[in-house]
Amino acid sequence: MIRQPIVAILGHVDHGKTTLLDKIRGSTVANKEAGAITQHSGASEIPIATIKNVCGDLLEKMKLDVEIPGLLFLDSPGHEAFTAIRKRGSSIADLAILIIDINEGFQPQTDESLNFLKEFKTPFIVAANKIDRIAGWVSYPDECFSISLEKQPEHVRERVEEMTYRLIGQISERGFDCERFDRVKDFKKEIAVVPVSGQTGEGISELLMMLTGLGQNFLKDKLEVNNKMGEGSILEVKEFTGLGTTIDVILYNGEISKDDYLVAGGKEPVVTKIRALLKPKPLKEIRVEKDFDHVEKAVAASGIKIAAPGLENAIAGSPVKFVKTKEEAERERKIMERECTKLEFDKAGDGVILRADTLGSLEALIHMLKQRDIPVKKAEVGPVVKRDLVEAEAIKDRYTKVIFAFNVKTVESDKIPIFQSDVIYTIFENYDKWVVEEKERVRKEKLSQITLPAKVKILKGFVFRQKDPAVVGVEILEGTLKCNVRLKKDKKTVGDVKQIQKDNENVHEANVGERVAVSIDGGNVGRNIKEGDELLVVICNNDLKLLQELSMDTKLAEESL
User: Fold this and answer.
1) Taking the domain 347-447, which CATH number applies?
2) Which of 52, 57, 232, 276 has fewest C-beta within 10 Å?
3) pLDDT in tens, 317-364
4) Looking at the predicted structure, is the pLDDT value of residue 70 above 90?
5) Which residues, other chains included, contact 138 with Cβ-Cβ below 8 Å and sequence gap of 6+?
């Protein structure tokens, strides 16, 4: 029996991966994604009947006797946070589509995805997406690219040619021979570039034709399914209503049955018995589907949701093996104990607390925090609970005394900031904004508690009272003058500022260049102060240290000690 090829869809964020897949399966998953960006890995089965319907007579023109039962697509997040998830997708794929916005060309995650394909030696096709956004392009929905191109004005055809070969040049610079799909002479040596539009459907028939042809002609031996027990990879670990913790698995070899034992990689290898196998209907996306078919058996290659006790300890990205007996399961557990990948991070006493809907999401959060040098105290799947608030209370650093909650429910808290969103980088945008605001609040709080340095000059002709208290007009030469500060001249104290008036109104402070009237308790014009004198605000060592902490100019403060 020949199984369907597993096709990973990779590329930069917002280059149209899910939109293109939506067009193929006739769904609207992209519109339902938080922030219109994929946040989890998913899988969709495209039956061969759908492929033949979309391709029309293209498969006949290729004289292709199609034996594969369809294609199993893996959709991966494009955002930089989801590096581990993209790598996971490319490692288990038979084929891949590298989607590139033809208008933007290579971007950071495009290069990253290409490196994963190189690392795992995964054959791939390039989908040059968003041809409908080329200036002057006239769309012909669901038409072949070749036919749509023929109908375009000459200047548009020239522009398409120019942009396609600019992209081909970028791919060639990265060490691959490539050519537009209809000009490829040897598919074993050249990468095919298929111009498409995920919005209008143009070019999708040729894309599916190319994938079917490559899978059929070059992967046939690899796609033969034997009768041995199943092998797979865990895409996600997540809660499912009524079933508790489940795992979304890509079964890439063999077959599995309900009541088989599974051995999955985790904090410690998980050994458990399958309670339910749930299969999404054809053309449905496993990560968003709510209505599954309960099946007794599943055969590779397929995306399958599995319910079983103890799966909360499984780790996304880990291998999963299926066996018939407890003895076989124990043997596999020992092997996996040596091989399985664990979710690891350096635990810090003063780190942030993470909560997410899946372990794959936790991986992404930890990855982003590591890039920012933000320590992590705890990372767990599930909603924020009161225990998290208690643990956060013990954190001393105000900027890590927070909780990040991705796509999970939270509890209310007046004391602990909780950053919650179903878009992962919105959490970080909100956190960054909060940090800026918090630092400014702390800065203002510290400034309100210290004496700021200032230098003032007593103006000639503006002595309003000589003493008890002295009232004189001054100009602020440097710094900020506030009430209740002590003034000195030539290192000798002359009195305390009790009141500041500007335009006959009392004010709390006066800044550089302003002329105000001040009352100086202890000042005596003609005795310890006179017109033209320059006076300094008295600063203590603690004030100087705080000013240094706030990165403020301390030259005047040092002079005022």
Assistant:
1) 3.40.50.10050
2) 57
3) 778 899 999 999 999 888 877 654 444 556 667 899 999 876 667 777
4) no
5) 151, 152, 153, 156
